[in-house]
Amino acid sequence: MTRQPSDPIDPYESRLARRVGSFSEQGVQPIDPVAIAASVALGARRRTLAGRLFGSTRAAGRFAAIGVGALLLVTLGAVIGAGGIVRPSQTPEPTLGAAVPSTGPGPTPTAVPGSDLANACAIGDLDAHITRWEGAAGHRIATVEVQNVGGTSCAIWTLAAPRLVDDAGRILIDSPMAGTPASLTLAPNAVATTLVDDANYCGPAAVEPATVAFAFIDGRVLGARPDPTPGSLGGVPPCNGAGQAGEIQMQPFKLAG
Amino acid sequence: MQAVIDPDALRRMVASAATGDEVAFARIVATYHDDMARVSFVVCGDVQLAQEAVQAAWPKVWGKLDTVRDPARIRPWLVSVAANEAKQLARSRNRRWMREVAIDGDGPIAAPGSMSTSAVTAHALPSAAVARSSSDPGDRAGELDLANALADLSPDDRILIALRYAAGLTSDEIGRAIGMTGGGVRARLTRLLNRLREELHDD
Predict the structure, then answer these.
(1) How far is CA A48 from CA A53, A56, A180, B23, in A?
(2) A247 contacts A173 by C-beta, under 8 angstroms
């Protein structure tokens, strides 16, 4: 591939440009720009949050240790003050759409003090569905929409612990919530959207269509309906390395449109 | 092919991406990733490392998109970010731009680990330089000569060659990207051209 500079210095340049241009083509490989963009944006959000919380990476471990200690003290105090174990303030509601098991290999979200969402949407008032799956070098990325079909404004958490669930209801991959969730208010019929990126499933054969579910901090789980598109790519990612855990991560929900 | 984008569309694309629009950012990735990979490959001489360099460049680009004052100049900036990543990655992994010192006329260019009687190596040739080499023996020999000539250059000189002849930047664009004057870039390029012309027997 020849790229001739527009300000020639020497007649020999055109020949060298042809040689270097042709040679440099070897560096070009197929890519998925959507996956790269999604991964970069997600990584940036994580770094920003970590940076705000802990400052430099080197200091992160020190602050994390302090934080864990403080959290233990606060939890202990709460248990003693309440005279017992803190219990979820809300009973998990049934999921909409895909069957999401109540038990599985993943972490069960536990309601924590202060995790109540003001004017929280009832799970039954939310219609969550995958609009498409996209593929990229070992990854599957779902675009998920959640619509408030309840007729009144209500709120959802912007972040949850995402799960990849197959049609038999098995959790294939899960992950703890990454970040601090905020409240997002949905007017009637308003739609929130997010991207969920999963990779490296090396377990037993999954039953397609797979879908995703969101385990919120208040203990409720919202399942999304699978992508109905005929010939959809599906959400079960290829096995990239049996020795490594599967990965799944989500972007915060944001209002669509 | 160098990306040609309507300036207004490019301005909108960069502005949107700078506000966090991932779709706009994906368009930027789609438009410029290959250019960045070409430049990175010339700098580091390894396909995988070049791709890693570009992957490492994108988060830096994403974090600084809001500092782009003139979207028309984004391409020189992007390829220079990738070039620097390639240089640093190669250095951090203690990779040298590898060199092959002889080939057997019509025989295949040997790959690393498969050197036999057809080649005597000082260092292994970059795997990628073998994998997608031209099928024409003359072209292959020419690519090998170029690979060897690049191997003899300093990393900074390879960046200059890459920005100029893999990305097609002007002297002024290169100067802005690497912190030199256009005149300084031209002077260095002139010296490099004379050296490469001699080494490549392109008289």
Answers:
(1) 9, 11, 12, 20
(2) yes
For chain A, what percent of residues have pLDDT higher than 70? 71
Within its chain, how far is the Cα of A175 from the centroid? 9
Q: Which residue has the higher pLDDT, A200 or A96?
A: A200
Q: Which of B31, B38, B134 to mutate to test the interface with A (most CBs of A within 10 A)?
A: B38
pLDDT (average), residues B165-185? 94
For tokens 């009973």, the residue is: A91
Under an 8 A CB cutoff, do A27 and B202 touch?
Answer: no
**Nearest residue to A133 (alpha-carbon basis) of A212, A69, A241, A190:** A212
DSSP helix, strand, coil percent of chain B (3-state; round to 5)? 65, 5, 30
Q: How do strand A247-250 and strand A254-255 relate by DSSP bridges?
A: unpaired
C-alpha to C-alpha distance for B143 and B108, rounded to whole angstroms: 12
Residue A66 parent element (H or E): helix A57-82
Q: Cis before residue A181, ω within 30 degrees of 0? A: no
Chain A CB contacts of B37 under 8 Å are 27-29
Model ipTM over 0.85: no
Tokens of B106: 């019509």
